[in-house]
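Reopening this ticket.

The earlier resolution said the output was attached, but the attachment link was broken on my side. Pasting everything inline this time so it's all in one place.
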Amino acid sequence: MADLAELETFIAAARAGSFARAARQLNLSPAMVGRRIQALEHRHGARLIERTTRSQRLTETGEQFLLRAEALLEAARELDELTRPEPARLSGRIRLTGPTTVGIKRLPAIIARFTAAHPDVIVEMSLSDRRVDLVTEGFDLAVRIGELRASSMIARRVGTYEFACCASPDYLARHGTPADPEQLRDARCVLNLNLIPRNRWPFQQADGTPFTVEVRGNVEIDNGEALRAAAIGGAGIAYIPLDLVADDLASGALVRILEGWSLPSLPIHTVHPSRQLVPRRVMAFIDAVAEGFKA
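Inline output:
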């Protein structure tokens, strides 16, 4: 059975990317970090980290070992929490993944408030618009937009994701302002590659009946900030998350069109793996996300 201190040292070295950075995090010498990891490798009879004078990388065995080591260390902390007469201060690391737009526009302020209130907690955020496998990639939770697939994950709805149809004043002055979604068929549009399909924009009729309009354009982008910049630059009409363009609509850099027509909204959920003992810091952070998204 591995020593918990050795596991903690291995995890720190793997996540920090070097023995020196891990040593600073753990208040150890780099030599001690090396000795602990060597002892771990010797005990298990496997090379976990390939090391050269300039770099290091996890071996294939090391990558799998890392996920299980983190789970084992987390279980040890959870057992410790169960035996304490009073809840201790929150501590430890939260590994969070989420989509780029929400990660840029909403989560940083929530994380700042949470870590100020809980200074012993480290929040590690990775932003990606792909659907990350939380268990395989070792994440504690995800923030996800849209309807969820059936799974064993535990989900909590924390907010709503809205869209706007907009364009720059210059584009509208040159090409006119559509008064009906059907007119988008003949307009130049900036296509969002994160919408599937990219060229079919959803709307709702007055009675709530959904319908789509097929659009076209010669600019296609998979990043929200770049999509926003293209719209401001006059590249065309964009169907874009409201979070990204709220300030631009307020300042007049972009103009919202088709305001008499409803655009569907999407739910925002937090999702975490199903297990009996979820760390208190993770549950507290989920509460903080839900509260922050109300604002």
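Reporter confirms the inline version is readable. The first strand starts at residue 49 and ends at 51. The two ends are 47 Å apart (CA to CA).
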